[in-house]
Specification:
Layout: H1 3-15, E1 21-30, E2 42-43, E3 45-59, E4 63-68, E5 71-78, H2 91-99, E6 107-114, H3 124-139, H4 146-161, H5 168-175, E7 180-185, E8 190-195, E9 203-209, H6 219-235, H7 248-254, H8 257-281, H9 285-301, H10 308-319, E10 324-328, E11 335-341, H11 345-358, E12 365-369, E13 376-377
Parallel strand pairs: 4-6
Antiparallel strand pairs: 1-3, 1-13, 2-7, 3-6, 4-5, 7-8, 9-11, 9-12, 10-11
The protein binds alpha-D-galactopyranose.
Length: about 375
């Protein structure tokens, strides 16, 4: 049984009747461009072949019910102006419904299933938000564009869940394509399709999930965001996007060391995203590898969002023959990615497992991800 069928069956078991459809959206891996999104900068994520599925039927009343394969509890609310609180995992799908409440025409029953690992930095939450937003857009005939649906998902995350995250994950989950990554200019929200050309060269993107879980509603993410705002204010710009590498000496003079290093990460990372796009266009793999490693070093040393498990994952991936590797996502846990010849994937897995065991870290998980299409109706 595939996940669409499994989600249909899960709905039927939970509610005792057939849903009207199934919608899905992928998690994402970010090739490069970390914490640049909320600084109006550039990011280069792609959708992965791990998805969240939403089976939904409308109701004649205005009651909104959700349940899922990971919790048998059925959570039920009606959408009012007060924002929903305290619903645990159900805040993600119901938060989306709440943000869309002005479009509400009916109540609904929803069942959710997913194979996106939770807390791995692969945007399991964006996958829930985007599959739910697309489903409601269809059944409520809300007429929103993919970018508008991404913004709705982000509002659910910011206003309801309380995580001050940017727009990268939801945009990737809505707009991803199966043959490449999506370059997002987070200032203009212009998106450009970037072919990766990895499979032609027998390369895969491996994910090394440290299994160290993280939450962006905790303090680390927020404090990085605040440092960036402070840096922009000191430099007299609306966002760090406006700064160039040539502005860094002036920034160094103008602010404390911690704020400066946060700023330096963002400014250099924006540049690395654009350099990555041009390296990919000419298949300059050595340069691609160097850019990924420089990005990781910048997150480790300047932005200070890596953890020893992620550093070890990256170092071990390089020893196993990866052309480049870096932590992906918000940090403080989660996963690293490595670009590696497909024939070396199992060797990578063996070496990473051994290295983690030797360091006394919990067992990691290693798997390849394939660029996959954004949110869509499945059935
Ligand atoms: C999380 C957030 C994104 C982005 C990344 C870091 O995934 O949801 O908006 O800020 O962290 O690049």
């Amino acid at each position: 049984m595939n996940l669409t069928q499994q989600t249909l069956a899960g709905f039927k078991e939970a509610y005792g009747y057939e849903p009207s459809g199934v919608w899905s959206a992928p998690g994402r891996a970010n090739l490069i461009g970390e914490h640049t999104d909320y600084n109006n900068g550039f990011v280069l994520p792609f959708g992965i072949d791990r998805r969240t599925y939403v089976a939904l039927a409308t109701r004649e009343d205005k009651i909104c019910r959700v349940t899922s394969s990971f919790s048998s509890e059925v959570v039920e609310i009606e959408l009012r102006d007060d924002r929903p609180t305290g619903l645990d995992w159900a805040l993600y799908p119901l938060g989306v419904a709440w943000v869309m409440r002005e479009s509400q025409t009916t109540g609904f029953d929803v069942f959710i299933d997913s194979d996106v690992p939770i807390g791995a930095g692969l945007s399991s939450s964006a996958a829930v938000e985007c599959s739910m937003a697309l489903a409601l857009n269809d059944v409520w005939e809300a007429g929103k564009s993919p970018i508008e649906l991404a913004l709705i998902g982000q509002r659910a995350e910011n206003e309801v869940v309380g995580a001050p995250t940017g727009i990268m994950d939801q945009t990737a989950s809505m707009l991803a394509r199966s043959d490449g990554a999506v370059l997002i200019d987070c200032k203009t929200m212009e998106t450009t399709h970037i072919p990766l050309g990895l499979s032609e060269q027998d390369l895969v993107v491996a994910v090394i999930d440290t299994q160290v879980s993280h939450r962006h509603s905790d303090g680390g993410y927020r404090s990085r965001r605040e440092s960036c705002e402070k840096g922009a204010e000191i430099m007299g710009v609306e966002s760090l996007r406006e700064l160039e590498v040539a502005d860094l000496p002036r920034a160094k003079e103008a602010m404390d060391d911690v704020t400066f290093r946060r700023v330096r990460h963002i400014v250099t990372e924006n540049q690395r995203v654009l350099q990555t796009v041009s390296a990919l266009a000419d298949a300059r793999l050595d340069e691609l590898g160097e850019l990924l490693l420089a990005s990781h070093a910048s997150m480790r040393d300047d932005f200070e969002i890596s953890i020893p498990e992620l550093d070890l994952a990256v170092a071990t991936a390089m020893e196993a023959g990866a052309i480049g590797s870096r932590m992906t996502g918000g940090g403080f846990g989660g996963a690293a990615i490595a670009i590696i010849n497909s024939a070396k994937l199992s060797q990578l897995e063996t070496q990473v497992e051994a290295a983690f065991e030797e360091s006394g870290f919990g067992a990691p998980r290693v798997f390849a991800v394939i660029p996959s299409q954004g949110a869509r109706k499945e059935a």
